[in-house]
Design goal:
3-stranded parallel beta sheet; 6-stranded mixed beta sheet; 9 strands; globular; 11 helices; alpha/beta; about 40% helix; TIM Barrel
């Protein structure tokens, strides 16, 4: 367990479970000293979290996780130390909310066409801002399939091959880019995301490359050329081999190394606060990031 966790999500993310105060409490319980709430295209949790951190032995580094694309591939870009009161972040969030509301309806129809049903009423209890994520559909579908007889859901039930994080695994299997129930949302380009973060005083860091870039050195080089300044080397998604690969790449290209659990709560139950396996690198990670941010 690390004392740094620079990638967590609050209930301001559509797929996050806990409010900012609860996130702070969880960090304190696990003796986290430095943390970031990096909600999806949203900075609204930061002021609340800062309020709860007052007079406590914990420090928050403002952050956001922007959805973006490069060569039609969806990526996530973390921005650390941003001026989060800038109106651009609200503009980005509002644009994505409008698109996601439309995409949600398409996503729901596609899932039903595949043979997975659920209760609309139950979905409504989970939805925020009129948005229905793949994780919400998974929860509703598993609740609807009371006798656990739908073979398409079998991998997500207890002891199934995808049961460690059933809701988000369902999303990756059915609703993510390239999958049968994918509903496109037009995100800003990686170049635009880097520009937004830097123009607002932040450091752009590529999030969990093991999810979508894998160990594609050529693609990583392209991403690097756009202007990222760090890589989330230590992640709950990365095995030891991947950590070594990304760490070597970061060292070679003089990039910052960061760590984050990508904690969400119930959508990823196997991921806990502080679970990012950064070994003995905590001091180097936080000191390098704070130096880069002039903190």
């Amino acid at each position: 367990m690390s004392y740094i966790d620079l990638h967590m999500h609050s209930s301001y993310s559509d797929d996050g479970e806990f409010d900012p105060k609860t996130i702070v409490d969880l960090c304190l319980d696990r003796k986290i000293k430095y943390f970031s709430i990096a909600d999806h295209n949203c900075v609204k949790a930061i002021d609340e979290a800062m309020l709860y951190c007052k007079d406590k032995d914990i420090e928050i580094i403002p952050a956001v996780e922007l959805d973006c694309t490069i060569d039609s591939l969806n990526l996530h870009l973390l921005g650390y130390g941003i001026e989060y009161h800038s109106t651009i972040f609200n503009e980005i969030q509002e644009n994505i909310i409008l698109q996601e509301q439309t995409a949600s309806q398409k996503r729901m129809k596609l899932i039903r066409k595949l043979g997975i049903d659920y209760s609309n009423e139950f979905i409504e209890t989970l939805s925020r801002n009129g948005i229905v994520t793949g994780e919400m559909i998974a929860e509703a579908a598993m609740q609807f399939d009371k006798d656990k007889i739908n073979p398409m859901l079998k991998p997500y039930y207890e002891n199934g091959s995808r049961s460690d994080n059933p809701y988000v695994n369902f999303y990756w299997d059915y609703c993510s880019q390239g999958k049968p129930a994918y509903a496109e949302v037009n995100f800003i380009s990686l170049q635009e995301a880097v520009k937004v973060i830097e123009e607002n005083g932040g450091i752009p860091v590529l999030a969990h490359p093991g999810i979508n870039i894998k160990e594609n050195s050529a693609l990583l080089e392209t991403v690097c050329d756009v202007g990222i300044r760090g890589i989330e080397v230590y992640s709950s998604y990365h095995n030891e081999s991947q950590v070594s690969f990304y760490k070597d790449f970061a060292f070679k290209h003089k990039l910052l190394v960061t760590c984050g659990s990508d904690f969400h709560g119930k959508t990823k139950p196997s991921i806990t606060v502080g679970f990012s396996n950064c070994g003995n690198d905590e001091e180097g990670i936080i000191s390098s990031l704070k130096k880069a941010l002039n903190l």
